[in-house]
Amino acid sequence: EKCGYPHFMLKEIFEQPECLKNCMRGRINADVDKVTLSAVIDYKERLLAAKRIIIVACGTSWHAGLIGKQLIETFCRIPVDVEYASEFRYRNPVVTKDDLVIAMSQSGETADTLAAIELAKRSGALIYGICNAVGSSIPRATDTGSYIHVGPEIGVASTKAFTGQVIVLVMLSLALAKEKGTIDDQTYNDVVKELSLIPDKMKEVLEQNDKIADLSRIFTYAHNVIYLGRGYSYPVALEGALKLKEISYIHAEGYPAAEMKHGPIALVDSDMPVVVIATHNAMYEKVLSNIQEIKARKGRVIALVTKGDETISRIADEVIELPKTLECLEPLLATIPLQLLAYHIAVCKDKNVDQPRNLAKSVTVE
Ligand code: F6R
Q1: Could you tell me the distance, in angstroms and rounded to a whole number, from the CA of residue 361 to the centre of ligand 1?
Q2: What confidence tens digit (pLDDT) does each residue in 109-149 have?
Q3: 20 to 30 A from 358, CA-CA: which of 28, 42, 59, 256?
Q4: Is 361 a catalytic residue?
């Protein structure tokens, strides 16, 4: 059932273009530029009435939630809080019937996320689930929601569920924004069109697997790795660091690139690999100067750049190219090399990538 792949994790990384097509099937129609989510049709009035959105989740799902915050705030102009379910449930948080709570969970069984839902329900908030496992506890506890439909995820480290969650959040933010009238037609149409091109662009990224396997060998020596990104790429940096920690047992931290100078840059020396998401977008020049600061301290930079970038390619130690896409969709492409990097480093170190020590696929206890 690994279909010729040595591990489920690698299979699931490579499945992503196909999974995302399944996730978008019947929901995205690029011919007529339209996103249709049945939950948004069924619960339109209540969704439009929401004054605030609270996303509750754990781990990788929480990282997807951070991307959701940017998407929803950008397109729908509704304030969004992203909460660790475990903190939210014990904090006596302010939740009202005017809130929309989005619970994100691959397994649909995470105990803290389920408890956060039960708490929010008591305040009368509408609960929207974004889950993978059909018929699991969280979808059953929610009022409505959208499945990510990426198929069973076996590898303990979450991969395709993350990109599936991001795609659902893109579709949800577009569908809501359209109903609210907070998005112009041009932007809406551009994002819908580009979404349909993402699976093929992901395939292009996956073609660099051998190259990433080669460069992974260089970095197995590391005891610490820093991941940097800004804007939509900041949660991707967090996710890249989590993947590396989980399966290779190398300590890794994700940071917003500009926070470097507020502390973490003290860690940089010639032993320190720094993975930087430095794609060509509004923040490019600023991230470029962060890279220069790291190189001035002899750090080893692995940069994710937009195809054709020459400036960063000249100063970074290693470069991975990504096809150009819209900034709000960049996480879908930038995540893939970070999954592969974590995977190959763990394989080089002879770790059990599908079943890392101390971790379980569903965390049904708190
Ligand atoms: C990371 C990972 C965990 C889960 C977390 C939440 O690779 O697998 O951090 O993301 O335990 O799980 P779900 O999404 O099932 O609620």
Answers
A1: 7
A2: 999 999 999 999 999 999 999 999 999 999 999 999 999 99
A3: 256
A4: yes
